[in-house]
Design brief:
It is a single chain. With 376 residues, the chain is an alpha/beta fold. It has 10 helices and 17 strands. It has 2 domains: 117 residues, NAD(P)-binding Rossmann-like Domain (Rossmann fold), CATH 3.40.50.720; 169 residues, Dihydrodipicolinate Reductase, domain 2 (2-Layer Sandwich). The protein is globular, with a radius of gyration of 21 Å. The C terminus is likely disordered.
Length: 376
């Protein structure tokens, strides 16, 4: 791995806690600086992490010791912050989506290529043992040639638990753009890139009622379709069906199923890093649970950055910008197809990322504990 990759974080909202918890464990990453529009939030992070300083966004982007900027700002600011970081000669890793639109995401990739820096993007859940064990089962031929897949995400709406759910029901929100990155990224990782899509969409209500927090009972207008279905045609010939809903109540269907000529797979929730993979081979009497056989063990948010740090210069990271751009392009195209009533070809493409062998990354906390035990 060499020296740790020195990281600066822009945006200290709620999601940062998950990254910080994993950074403490990963030898491959060294957090050196944090910034936020609210200086107090950045200072609170710095106070809790030795060797980390709180600075302004401009100071972080100009810092000589920041090699990669972790972009945890709101989606509308993803492209702006990424482009500024790239202009400053920094690599970038962003929360999903890579940008608010596929056009902005393309600008980020083009700028990074010209600057010779790397771009990575969540979700890195696909690097965990759940999706990677399923990927290995497919690669090992356990289901034969893949024929089809289904991806299901059903919830009656985030307003039931989220105190400020407005964004989910405005342009740029909705079930597909909110949760779709996990599912589409997993489908591309498992089955390869998508070449065309057909979509349909609907909504059942013109407003939603906030169910918790100080705004409980307040009405939120709905300006997007809250139920989206789509058929993705993969370059391999496999067909994936998406079912993403903020309208329906519950589903007993697995999050993702993959069907092949000689068997079927149940794939765990792509919003998690682990989970059971189940196989039903042709001629079997029941499902069997496959042993964990691939992926980063005990992974969490930020493992994609550690993977990027181990990627050869100039090579595409597994949780890379090209894959994130392709997933965003696919989702936008499903919504375009729903509006126009016609099939939409996908202009972008992404190589199926390299698989991850079963790997335990160095545990910094465990290593320190071992050193202390040796001294005593």
């Amino acid at each position: 791995m060499g020296k740790p990759l020195k990281v600066g974080i822009v945006g200290c909202g709620a999601i940062i806690a998950q990254y910080l918890a994993n950074f403490r464990k990963l030898n491959q990453i060294e957090l050196v600086a944090v910034a936020d529009l609210d200086p107090a939030r950045a200072q609170a992070v710095a106070d809790d992490h030795e060797g980390v300083r709180a600075v302004s966004v401009d100071e972080l982007l100009a810092a000589d010791d920041v090699e990669l900027v972790l972009n945890l700002t709101i989606p509308a600011a993803h492209a702006e912050v990424a482009l500024k970081a790239i202009a400053a000669g920094k690599s970038v890793y962003g929360e999903k989506p890579l940008a608010a639109t596929a056009a902005e995401a393309r600008q980020v990739l083009d700028a990074a290529r010209k600057a010779g820096v790397a771009v990575g993007c969540a979700p890195d859940t696909v690097l965990g043992t759940g999706i990677q064990t399923a990927r290995k089962a497919i690669d090992d031929g356990l289901i034969g040639a893949p024929i089809s897949a289904s991806a299901t995400m059903v919830t009656p709406g985030h307003e039931r638990w989220h105190p400020n759910p407005d964004f989910y029901y405005q342009p740029g929100g909705g079930p597909l753009l909110d949760m779709g990155p996990y599912y589409v990224t997993a489908l591309v990782t498992l089955l390869g890139p998508v070449v065309s899509v057909v979509g349909a969409a609907s909504h059942t209500r013109s407003e939603r009622t906030i169910g918790s927090g100080p705004r409980q009972g307040e009405k939120v207008p709905v300006a997007i379709d809250s139920h989206v279905t789509g058929v993705l045609v993969h370059a391999s010939g496999a067909l994936s069906t998406l079912f993403m809903s903020f309208d329906a109540v519950k589903s007993k269907s697995p999050n993702i199923e993959i069907h092949g000529e000689r068997g079927s797979l149940v794939v765990p929730d792509p919003n998690h890093f682990d989970g059971e993979v189940q196989l039903f081979p042709l001629g079997a009497d029941e499902w069997e649970t496959l042993p964990v056989s691939a992926g980063y063990v005990d992974a969490g948010r930020g493992f994609g950055i550690a993977d990027l740090a181990a990627t050869e210069p100039g090579a595409e990271p597994r949780a890379g910008g090209t894959l994130a751009y392709h997933a965003l392009d696919v989702m936008e195209s499903v919504l375009e197809s729903a509006r126009t009533g016609t099939a939409v070809p996908i202009r972008s493409s992404a190589e199926r990322p390299a698989s991850v062998e079963l790997t335990v990354l160095t545990d910094r906390v465990g290593a320190l504990q071992a050193q202390e035990a040796t001294r005593s």
